[in-house]
Amino acid sequence: MIELLTGMLSGALLAGGVLVLGALGEVLAERVGVFNLGLEGLMALGGVTAIITVAHVASAPLGLAAGILAGVAGGVVFAVPVVLLRANQTLCGLALTIAGTGLAASVGRPYSGQPARAVFDGVAIPYLSELPVLGRAIFSQNLLIYVIWIILPIALHYLLFKTRHGINLRAVGENPAAADAAGVPVVLLRFCYVVIGAGFSGAAGAYLTLAFVPSWSDGITGGRGWIAVALVIFAGFRPYQAAAGAFLFGLITALGFVGQARNWPIPPAFLSMLPYLGTLAFMIVPVMVSRRLQRRLAAPASLGLAFYRDQR
Amino acid sequence: MRVQRVASISGGVVIASRIGAVIAALLVGGAIFALAGYDVPMLADNVVEGSLTEFGIEDLGLLVSPLILTGLAVAIMLRIGLWNIGADGQFYAGAVAATVTGLAFPGGNDAVMLVVLALAGFAGGALWILLPALARAYLAVDEIITTLLLNFVALLFVNYLCTGPMRDPGQAITSASARVTTEIPPLMGDLHWGLVAAIVLALILALVFAYTPWGYEVRVAGANRFAAHYAGIPVRKRLMQVMLLSGGIAGLGGMAEVAGTVHRLQGGISNNFGYLGVMVAVLAGGLPIAVLPAALLMAVILNAGIVLQSYGVTTYEVLALTGLVLLFIAISEQLAYYRLLRRV
C-alpha cells in the first residue's frame, strides 16, 4: 500500500510536470486574449529540439534551453499571423499543431527510440529524502520538479494578480479597447505573452524528452498539449488551479502506469484512455454541478477575438 | 499608397485568396524541401506524372471519398459556428460499428446489408459525438477540446479491438479484424461507388443548407446564437441535430472505408482523414458544395505525398506541408480584407 502511494505520488509529479508547464504557458496566452491551440505542436518541437541538442552536446540544461528556444520560435510563427495580422486563432493553432508535429517527427526520425544522451536525473535531498513516502516521491526527483510545481506557479500568480503589469495584461484579455485607451500597448503585450507562453510549451516538450520519458519517439506528446489546453479552462485561467489540476491528471496518468506495472486485470488500452476520459470528465462535471462555479471560472471576455484599433 | 480594411469581400476574392494561399504554401514548402537537399523540380515532375496515370487517378478517387465525408462533417458544424476536431474519432467509431455489424451477418452481400452497414456507421459516428454535443448544447463546454480528446480514446479502442477481441487469428497481419463480406460495388478498378455517394451527399447537404428553413435556422444560429434564440429558433435543438449529423457523416466515412476499400477493421484505418477533413472544410470556407473541390485538392496533395515516398519523403513531411497550407489559408483569409488605396 505504502509502495503504491509512493509510486502514484512520484508518478503524478513526474508526469504532471509536462502539463503544468504547458498549462501555465497557455494561461499567459489566454490571459492576454489569445487562444493558442498549437500547444501539441510546440511541445513536439521543443521535445525534438532538446533531444537533438543533447545528442550533440551532452548537457541537459542546454537541451532545455534549446527546447525553450524552439517553443519561442514556434510562438513567433504563431503570433505574427494571429496578433499582427489578426488571422483566425483556431485555424492558426490547428495549423501550428499539425505543422509542428509533422516537422518534429520528420527531423526527429534519426533520433527515434534512442535514450536521451543527457537527462535531468533525480537528486536525493539530504535528510528529507529519507522520509517515508514523501522522501522518495518528492525529495528524490529531478530538480526541475520544484521549479515547475512551486516556483513557476507562485511567480505567475504574483505577476498576474499582484503587479500593475499583471492588471494591464489581464485588461488586454478582458477589454483590449479600454486597455488601449488607458495607454496599454495591446498588440505588444499580446505578442510578447503569446511568445513567452509558447516558450513554456517548448520547455514542456524538453521536460518530456529529457526528464519524464526520457527519449524521443514519433507521437510522444500523445495529446498532452491538448490536455494542457483543457486544463487551463478547468483551472479558470489561474496558475495555482492549473498546477492543482495538472497534479490530478498526473495522478490519473500514474494510476494507468501503476495498473500496467502491477498487471491489473484491465487491458492496458483502457488504462491509457484514463487521461483523456479524465480530462473530459473534468471539463464537463464541474460545470454540470454548479452554474455559479461556471461564472467564476469564466474565460477572459475577449479571448479569441482579434483587436482592431480602428474598428472598436 | 496605403492599405485599408474593408468590411466585406466578394466570393471571387475569397476563392482567389484560397488559391493564392495554397500556391504560397507550396512555394514555401518547396523552398524548405530544396534547402533540405531535395531536387524539387524533379520531384514536382514525378508527382505530376505519377498522379496522371490510371493507377494514380484511381488512388486519387480512393482518397477523395473519405475526405469529402470528413470534410462535410466538419463543414456543416462550421455552419452553426462550431468546430468538429473529432472527425477522426467518429470515423473510427463508424468503422467499428460497420465492421461489427458486417461480421455479425457473415456472407451477406446485398443492397439491404449495405444500407444496414451505412446506418450502423452513421449511428457509430453520431454516438461518438453525443457527449460533446450534449456538453456543448446544455453546458456550453468548449467542443474543440471535447471532440478532439475522444479521437485518442477511439484510436486506443480500435487498436485494442484489432489486437484483442476482434483480431483475426487466421491472418498474418497482427492488427486487423476478419474480412467483412459486405462490399460497396466497384466503379472502376479499385474505385467504388462510395465516391458517387459522397458527391451526392455533398450536393444534398448544399441544397439543404441553402434552401430549406432548417438550413436557414442553422445558419442564423451560427451567425449569432443570441439573435437566433431571440427570433424563436430552437438553438439547442439545432446544435444537437447538426452535431449528431456531423458525427454521423464522419462515421459514414469510416463505414465506406471498411466496406469499400479496406474490407476489415485495422489500426490506423482513419489515415488522419478526420484531421484532414478539418483542412478540407476550412479550405471550402464551410460551404458543403465547396467541399468537393477542396477534397480533390487535398487528395492531390496526399497523392503527391504517396508518390514522393518513393523518393525518401515521409508522411511527416507531407503532414507538415498540409499544416503550412492551413496557416497560409488563415493568413490569406485575413489579408483578403485589405485593399491598397492610392493616397488622395
Protein described:
The complex is a heterodimer of chains A (312) and B (344). With 312 residues, chain A is an all-alpha fold. Chain A has helices at residues 2-31, 39-56, 60-84, 89-108, 134-137, 144-162, 164-174, 176-181, 186-212, 224-234, 239-261, 268-289, 291-296. Chain A has one domain (2-120, 163-311): ABC transporter involved in vitamin B12 uptake, BtuC (Orthogonal Bundle). Chain A contains 13 helices and no strands. The longest helix of chain A is centred in the N-terminal third of the chain and has 30 residues, at 2-31. The radius of gyration of chain A is 19 Å and the shape is globular. In chain B, the strands form two sheets. In chain B, strands 1-4 form a two-stranded antiparallel ribbon. Chain B has a two-stranded antiparallel sheet with strand order 2-3. Chains A and B meet through helix 4, helix 10 and helix 12 of A and helix 5, helix 6, helix 11 and helix 13 of B.
Chain-wise SSE layout:
The complex is a heterodimer of chains A (312) and B (344).
Chain A lengths: L1 H30 L7 H18 L3 H25 L4 H20 L25 H4 L6 H19 L1 H11 L1 H6 L4 H27 L11 H11 L4 H23 L6 H22 L1 H6 L16
Helix pairs in contact in A: 1-6, 1-9, 1-10, 1-11, 2-3, 2-4, 2-9, 2-10, 3-4, 3-9, 6-7, 6-11, 10-11, 10-12, 11-12
Chain B lengths: L1 E4 L5 H25 L4 H13 L1 H26 L7 H18 L6 H29 L3 H21 L22 E3 L2 E2 L1 H18 L1 H11 L1 H6 L4 H28 L10 H11 L7 H19 L5 H21 L2 E4 L3
Antiparallel strand pairs in B: 1-4, 2-3
